[in-house]
Every structure is written in structure tokens, then in C-alpha cells.
User: Fold this.
Amino acid sequence: MSDMAENQADSRFMAMALALAAHATIETSPNPKVGCVLVRDGVVIGQGWTQPVGQAHAEVQALRDAAANGKDVRGATAYVTLEPCSHYGRTPPCANALIDAGIARVVAAIGDANPQVSGRGLAMLTEAGVQTQCGEDPVLAAQAREMNIGFFKRMETGRPWVRVKLAASLDGKTALPNGRSQWITSAAARQDGHCWRAKADAILTGIGTVLADDPLLNVRGVETPRQPLKVVVDSQLRLSPKAKLLSEGTTLVVCADMNNEKRQLLEAAGVEVVCFGSDNGQVDLPALLQELGRRQMNEVHVEAGAKLAGALITNHCADELIIYLAPKLLGAGAGLLDLPELQVVDDARRLSVRELSQVGDDIRILARFI
Assistant:
């Protein structure tokens, strides 16, 4: 096979592996979603994707699939969307499984950012005589990274990927002067918002939103195997033990000044309370995100008021925005974000619009900070 033909085949089979990775559910978290295709003589003989955390990784699933179909994998090529792991975690190293199975060549879309793996998986394979290559197709490498953007962010910075969801009228209002905001956007947009909630490991909000709306802050109307952790930024521990969001699931309340009496009341209601204070008497948001990263949260979905959403942006804690714009004009009312005043336009935070689509009657903008 010529080099060009081999490259085309590699791209085609890696694209298949990426499609398989998309089958992995949110239950893989904190592990990344990975797909694997085993190919011999141009024919797919095994395929798999990451199973829920603690179960088989994509490579092992593909080997099992080949065995179940009576296929001999010796001398085959494994196309994997992420460098095979090299360490013992909840499961044995996938690099060893590929070596023991007699795989002759491993093509990885992208290297693993996990310090326990980074480069070691490929090195193990090379030392065992397996031919390896990684990141040869920059387009597919970018797709592989995007599929696990939260995992890569956490491994590289210690923090999860933070997505801030906002909803407003075309004139940028999120509520009327009397505080009413139900419903500015369409039912379709609200349902879409729940799909984004379901993708996240945690849903973060502020005490102002809880006191004003008393939300459940869960995933509804969308099939999901688990509910995300609820995180409430509550500097002075004003959350009521009778708040609706405490009726189910797990809640973490983050304060800036610990009041033991209030803490005990919340803990009696099943809440975990932690304290991350800052010099201004508010919650230290970067420290909070570092803590969520330590807890192996890959993605955090934010649904908060203008003040907290603005603070996350101002403190460079937000990675991207999802903005739903309804075709309505509300006139006077609450604004979208509370941001510091600028003196020159050049100081504005810049974003790149990655997606613009219509959801129901509304427009959804996905924009990433640059």
C-alpha cells in the first residue's frame, strides 16, 4: 500500500473510531470517551468504546468483540482515539492488553494529557516492538480533543471545563423589572438546556438564583443514567435546608465565611459544606474550580445570575458560553451579565463563535473565550 493510500485508510478508520467514542455515555466520567477499531488486511475485525467507569476501556472492548466473532487479532492495527493507558487504575493498562494480544501497529488520534500516561503508553508499545504513530491527522486529533475537552482541561490545568448558560431576549434582558423571567425562551430551548446539563458532572449556581427561583437544578425530560452534582455558591450560607434542590441528588454548598450553626443545619439536610473565602468576602472561584477538579469533575455547567456569571468571566474561570436568544424585546429589565466597566473597546474579552443554530423559536450561540 502506498503512503497516500495508507494515510487515507488511517483517516477513514480513525473517523470510525471517533464515531464509536461518541457512543460512550456520561457514565465514563472521569475517564475520557474513547473509541477503538481493530483492522487486519483492510477489514474491521473488532470495535469498542469506553464502558462506564470501572469497566473495560475501548481497546479491551474491541479485543473482546473480535474474540466473540472468532477473529484473530495477531498482526492487526488498532486505531484508538486516545493514547492507550499505561498505568493500573480501576482497570489494568490497555497498552499491555494490546501487546499481549499480538497487535502489530497502534495509531492514536492524540496523546493522553494524563501525567500518568502521557507518552508512556506509546513508549510501552514501542518497547514491545509494536509500531506506533500519534497525532498524524491534525483534524482528527482536534476532534478527539474536542470530544473530551473537559478531561483535557482538567489534566492540563487541574480545573474542569466551565460552560456558562445564559438566556435572554434580543435586547439582552434576562428578566422583567419585577424579577419575572418565566419563560423568555421557548420550551425547545429549555429542553436543549437540560441536554447540556446532562453532559456535565456538576451544575453550578448562585444563592441569588436559588432564593429567587427555588429551582430543582436537576436534569429533567432527558434520559440520563445519573444526576450531576449540584454546586451552590453561597458566601454567607443563606441556603434554606428546605430548598427544593435538596429534595434529591447530592449538593455541595460553597461559602466564604463558615458559620457552624448554619453548616450543621445544612449538613443535617444532607448537604456538604466547604469554605473557600477570598479577600473581598466572596467565594474564591478559582479555588472552587480547583477543588472540583480535584474531585475529578471534567465539565461544569453554570446556570446563574448576572453577578455570578459575570464574576466567573471576570476571574477567567469560564471557558465558553451557551446563549439562547429569544425573538422578543423586553425593554427595561435585568441585564445578561454583570461585568466591570471598560474604558477602551480593545480591553473587551474576545470570544470565537463556534456554533450558531436555531432551537425552537430561539437562536443558540456557542461561543468560546480566546
The first helix runs from residue 3 to 21. DSSP finds eleven helices and 16 strands in the chain. The mean pLDDT is 93. The radius of gyration is 23 Å.
